[in-house]
Amino acid sequence: PLHKGLKSAAKSLNSYSANVGKIGAGLVAAGSGILAPITAAVFHFADAGDQIDKMAARTGASTNALTEWGFAAEQSGASSEVLEKSFTRLQKNLFDAQAGTKKSVDALKQIGFTWDDLKDKSPDEQFELVSGAIGKLENQTIKAGVANDLFGRSGVKLLPLFNQGAAGMEALRQEARELGLSIGPEQAKAAAD
Known about the structure:
It contains eleven helices and no strands. By secondary structure, it is mostly helical. The chain starts with a helix and ends with a helix.
């Protein structure tokens, strides 16, 4: 009877152990299924923050402005890469305007600015003022020409954004802030690190 009882108990324990093993394996699989998207999101955030941190260093613009303008550009059919090229090209052309280069001086004149109007502004403010002024131009040929002269080919790709005018562009930037997409310098630096 004792042997029979022990054998029965061992059988019950083996059955219980097998069931616990199945439950454990199921929990591990469920945990992996939950952790995989979280891990992917962390890596995506780190990569995006690192890219924004480096883009800010290359353009002189703030990380907040770059992420907000990046969102606005993407909503208008462009990309963050196009945006970065536009920022750097504008900086080059403003430098040329400061040096008196006719093409850059004339392009600024078309939208009612001189180098002196923009020289004390941050790259973010310069971009905002120039893009808003281009958006006000009514003649599409002049608008495309000025965008090309000040922002390069990437500026022409941003015309759908500029065409929304200053209020429309600000609304898109505000939407980025409301969605939590505006990345501050500390967040970008932490992601880069």
